[in-house]
Prior knowledge:
Elements: E1 7-12, E2 18-23, E3 29-31, H1 32-37, E4 45-50, E5 53-58
Antiparallel strand pairs: 1-2, 2-3, 4-5
Amino acid sequence: xxxxxxxxxxxxxxxxxxxxxxxxxxxxxxxxxxxxxxxxxxxxxxxxxxxxxxxxxxxxxxxxxxxxx
Length: 69
């Protein structure tokens, strides 16, 4: 049985930057900053920096069809 990703992007900027996420295990809504500030509470995810922004990424598992959307 595949592991279900905990976070799902639910709002993006016009440029495609994920702005808001839902924690599918609790139903709670978080901003990108809130997730980034508390990334240790979200196993299976990490932060990368791009253009000075903290980007939430799921840890790679080699499968293209389950990237954070």
